[in-house]
Design a protein that fits this description.
The C terminus is likely disordered. The radius of gyration is 22 Å and the shape is elongated. Helix 3 packs across helix 8. With 342 residues, it is α+β, with helices and mostly antiparallel strands. It is built from eleven helices and ten strands. GO terms for molecular function: hydrolase activity; metal ion binding; nuclease activity. This is Protein ANTAGONIST OF LIKE HETEROCHROMATIN PROTEIN 1-like. It is found in: Nucleus. It comes from Spodoptera litura.
Length: 342
């Protein structure tokens, strides 16, 4: 006697429950009276269908370069300008097009795998690399790099980086901010694991930093925390990330990218927003099960890249910008400007 086909609504329910609860196939077997192999096939098929339906609206299209599971759409200059405007509004960091970071996705040891999946924390993983906007939406994701690799090396192998270095991302032209007499380029922000680039800013290194460098690092951190919050939201919404993935590498990649595109879709449907990232970031980040990639000695940036970072730092400590930043906290007493410390 043959069982009736599993209906689409039940297939979707099984998949979403797997994502949301992190239950095993055995748990789902008892809940839905479906075999473990059937559940695996259902999840695989539903992931592909969700991606097919939503990736153009919410994320992107697959990159054609073989060997890279990268997904993005090419924003227009108008799209980039809108993203930069939102970053300015949310974090008071001008000309910012996105925050960059990577996280480890835990795995059960893959069959016949070597140490390439074994990361610095001594568990098996693949890497999720992402660029996020100020609404915690994924602009770009790259999934599947070996866990032993660091942020900078993974990022430099992505077509996104290659397009960035070859001026292939339709970035807006450099512009002049109020109160300064020089042009600044549009940039992405990242932590110290990434190499400094003309369009990618990282913090100043060292411990004995002057006020200019400390101010810049503080302002960059405020902008960069959006990607940390996005990872925290991803982990908290989809509890599948709270335990090691016990499926094939290919299915793990499908699950990760599907959860990313669903997060974007939900944000768009719910008009999702946090009014202030700094009020929520510590909770989201502390509860995240996604592990930070190691910090390495990134390659020193070029003279042009260092000049860009220095000019942003000088802009942040200018009188005009200090007043704008100070007013954003609601304290409008000019007498406090000189006492304002970062």
């Amino acid at each position: 006697m043959f069982r009736a086909p599993v209906q689409p609504i039940e297939r979707l329910a099984v998949t979403l429950r797997y994502f949301v609860t992190g239950e095993t196939f055995k748990d789902l077997h008892f809940s839905y009276r479906l075999g473990a192999s059937t559940i695996g096939e259902i999840i695989k098929e539903v992931c592909k269908k969700i991606w097919t339906l939503l990736h153009e609206e919410c994320l992107s299209i697959p990159n054609s370069q073989e060997g890279y599971k990268e997904y993005m759409k090419m924003p227009s200059k108008e799209d980039w300008l809108h993203i930069a405007s939102k970053f300015q509004e949310s974090s008071n960091f001008p000309l910012c097009l996105g925050a960059v970071d990577g996280k480890h996705i835990r795995l059960i040891k893959p069959i016949d795998s070597d140490s390439m999946f074994l990361n610095y924390k001594h568990f098996f993983s693949i890497v999720l690399m992402a660029v996020v906007d100020s609404d915690y939406n994924f602009i770009f994701v790259d999934v599947g790099a070996y866990g032993k690799e660091c942020d900078s090396s993974v990022f430099k192998e992505t077509p996104f980086w290659k397009n960035l270095t070859n001026n292939g991302l339709n970035l807006p032209d450099a512009t002049r901010l109020p109160g300064i007499d020089y042009d600044l380029p549009y940039v992405f922000v990242a932590d110290e694991a990434f190499a400094l680039h003309y369009h990618l800013l990282r913090p100043f290194g060292g411990h004995q930093l002057d006020q200019l460098k400390r101010t810049f690092n503080y302002r960059l951190t405020r902008a960069r925390r959006f990607v940390e919050c996005a990872f925290g939201i991803l982990s908290n919404k989809w509890r599948i990330f709270h335990r090691p993935m016990n499926v094939s590498i290919d299915l793990t990649v499908d699950i990760v990218k599907t959860c990313c595109v669903l997060q974007n879709f939900i944000h768009k449907q719910e008009n999702f927003q946090f009014h202030n990232a700094s009020e929520n970031e510590s909770t989201l980040d502390s509860e995240s099960e996604l592990i930070q990639l190691p910090i390495t000695n990134a390659v020193r940036g070029s003279l042009a890249a260092n000049e860009v970072r220095n000019r942003f730092a000088q802009y942040f400590v200018s009188n005009t910008n200090l007043q704008t930043f100070f007013f954003s906290f609601g304290n409008r007493d000019p007498a406090n400007f000189k006492r304002f410390a970062f």
